[in-house]
């Protein structure tokens, strides 16, 4: 049972209660206990994976982490992951560095496709991804410049997918993108952020439209500060 389902059950039950001190039903309590137990098992499994990965890094390629709706996480579908990964690998070259800001699906695809000489760094708030060891950098968009100083202007390409469709979130994420980058920028966010993306980073909307495994109600788009479509889509088709 997902966290969203448990929260909905509790919320709906509390709405129906007329007592001053509402109590959860046995079925809701059972669902809550089941969720807590499953969450604990997942955390223990991640710890075990992290320990095993110190001996064999290939184990990390099999890690499957579910979306956390409270963190506004929505994973890309396979086509989107492949298009983005192949394009950023082209931009990075044979020994380049790639920064993935709040886009763990892209990072996982890069792990599968990139040569050992290319470095992919994940900047992410969700500490579950710390299982990836030195490839993981904790990132909170509220503190956009709290990243290791040695990483400034060190990435051939920076890709970001801000977790929220808000001016604050995009503005602060844009600061991080500019700080890390020494080359092309790619942004995945809603169409309603088009004007702001242009003002902050001189990005233009691409024809390529990212998709997610679980369809989003929002119109989601890709933006870049170069001609993304002329290379990304053609290279993926060939």
From TrEMBL:
<comment type="function">
    <text>S-adenosyl-L-methionine-dependent protein-lysine N-methyltransferase that methylates elongation factor 1-alpha.</text>
</comment>
<dbReference type="GO" id="GO:0016279">
    <property type="term" value="F:protein-lysine N-methyltransferase activity"/>
</dbReference>
<dbReference type="GO" id="GO:0005737">
    <property type="term" value="C:cytoplasm"/>
</dbReference>
<feature type="compositionally biased region" description="Acidic residues">
    <location>
        <begin position="14"/>
        <end position="23"/>
    </location>
</feature>
<protein>
    <recommendedName>
        <fullName>Protein-lysine N-methyltransferase DGAL_LOCUS9592</fullName>
        <ecNumber>2.1.1.-</ecNumber>
    </recommendedName>
</protein>
<dbReference type="InterPro" id="IPR019369">
    <property type="entry name" value="Efm5/EEF1AKMT1"/>
</dbReference>
<keyword id="KW-0489">Methyltransferase</keyword>
<dbReference type="InterPro" id="IPR041370">
    <property type="entry name" value="Mlase_EEF1AKMT1/ZCCHC4"/>
</dbReference>
<dbReference type="Pfam" id="PF10237">
    <property type="entry name" value="N6-adenineMlase"/>
</dbReference>
<feature type="region of interest" description="Disordered">
    <location>
        <begin position="1"/>
        <end position="23"/>
    </location>
</feature>
<keyword id="KW-0963">Cytoplasm</keyword>
<comment type="similarity">
    <text>Belongs to the class I-like SAM-binding methyltransferase superfamily. EFM5 family.</text>
</comment>
<keyword id="KW-0808">Transferase</keyword>
<dbReference type="GO" id="GO:0032259">
    <property type="term" value="P:methylation"/>
</dbReference>
